[in-house]
Each structure stands twice: as C-alpha cells, then as structure tokens.
Write a structure and sequence with these properties.
It is built from 8 helices and 12 strands. By secondary structure, it is α/β, with parallel strands linked by helices. It has a 5-stranded parallel beta sheet, with helices on both faces. Strands 6-7-8-9 form a 4-stranded antiparallel beta sheet, covered by helices on one side.
C-alpha cells in the first residue's frame, strides 16, 4: 500500500489512479488528520508527501515519522511545488528518501517509486563492513561509530553500503544515482552531494572516511579496520 498525502485534488486523484492502474495499491488523503488516522490502522510500504499542506506541513510530518521506531525507516518521497535548492535540502535533511518537484512526469514518478520499493523489499545480505571505528550490518540495518548507534535514512544507508561494498573504488555521481536511486537524473547531481553531506555529518569522525574525488565522485579509501 502506498499513501499519498496531497491537498491538490487533481494531483492526488491522478497519482492515486495511476498507481492503482499500474498494480501499485494506493490511497490518497487531503488532510494530515486523515493520514494519521490511516497510519494507526496500517503502515504503508511508501509515502508520497507534499510539503505545503493544511493543518500541518510536510516537513513536520516527515520529522514525526522519522522520530517513531516503527516508521523511522519508512520510505518517503517528497512531492512539492517548491523547486529551490533550499527546499530540496530541507526535505532531504529531514529524512526524505527522494524529492520530486512539481510538475512531474508520471512515468518518472512511477520509476522512482518502483526503484525505492525494490530496494526496500529486496532480500538483505549478511555482509558486514568494518572501517576504522565504523561498523555497518546491512541485514540488521545497523550503523555504529565507536560502538554508538547512528540513525540514517534509507538512502543514506544504501549510499554508505554501496561505498563500503566498492571500498577503494571511485564512484561517479552518475553511478551513485543509477545504483542507489535507480534512474537517470538529467545531469543533476545535487541529490548525491546533499546525501553525502548529511551522511558525513551523522557519521561524525567516521565521515572523514568518505573521500571526495574532485570533479569525479566519492569513495571510501583503504582505512585500516
């Protein structure tokens, strides 16, 4: 089940209809109060969340979702008419897994939804990674630095796991977009840079393990384990 919280009736009905017609069960809500009532009864597999809403804005809703254990890892895609870098950064910093400014193409929205669902539903690997004081266990969705737990969004976690799996290899922004987000991004790379920045901040000292290769991309080097 996919929940759509969008107060624009035409957009909400179009997205809901399209998802249902494509075999992705969806339900739309125009008000946050109705959304929260539905959340009590059933946790969806993904949420499409607008920023500008009556009663309660989308950023506040997102922060509430991330603050509760049972929804802290719930995949969330922000849908908003605001397309500035500030609003994109604000949404991603608050824990959004993806960000789609309006107007958007329905096929692109479907592609991003399927890519995100594919990654959340795929079988977890038992691989563990240790780099210096950093420990990551994908199967348990666990990240610790100096034995202290670190909370990451789904995309931050996937990005970190990919860099660790390819330790020592420089990954371009295009490769990271394709392998983590699963779609081409029309030459836009800010999404990767924003996630790298927040990932480094959350990892603290261990964030230094993520190296920037100017003009190319990022890598995690051969830090002694």
């Amino acid at each position: 089940m996919i929940y759509i919280l969008e107060d624009d009736e035409s957009i909400r009905e179009l997205v809901t209809y399209t998802l249902n017609s494509q075999g992705l069960e969806a339900e739309g809500f125009s008000r946050p109060v109705d959304f929260w009532e539905a959340m009590v009864k059933n946790i969806p597999s993904l949420v499409l969340l607008d920023i500008m809403l009556p009663e309660e804005d989308g950023i506040h809703i997102l922060k509430k979702l991330r603050s509760v254990p049972k929804t802290s890892q719930l995949p969330v895609i922000m849908l908003t008419a605001k397309g500035s870098e500030y609003d994109m950064v604000r949404g991603l910093d608050s824990g959004a897994d993806d960000y789609i400014p309006k107007p958007f193409r329905m096929m692109e929205l479907l592609s991003r939804i399927r890519a995100l669902l594919r990654r959340t539903q795929q079988e977890k690997t038992t691989t563990e990674y240790r780099v210096g004081d950093l420990y990551v266990c994908p199967s348990k969705h666990m990240v610790t630095v100096e034995n202290q737990p670190v909370s990451l969004t789904l995309k931050e976690f996937e990005l970190l796991c990919l860099l660790l799996a390819e330790q020592g290899t420089v990954l371009t922004r295009s490769q990271l977009l394709d392998r983590v987000w699963g779609y081409e991004f029309d030459g836009e790379s800010r999404t990767v840079d924003v996630h790298i920045r927040t990932l480094r901040q959350k990892l603290g000292k261990a964030g230094e393990y993520i190296e920037t290769i100017r003009g190319i991309g990022y890598k995690i080097g051969g830090v002694g384990a």
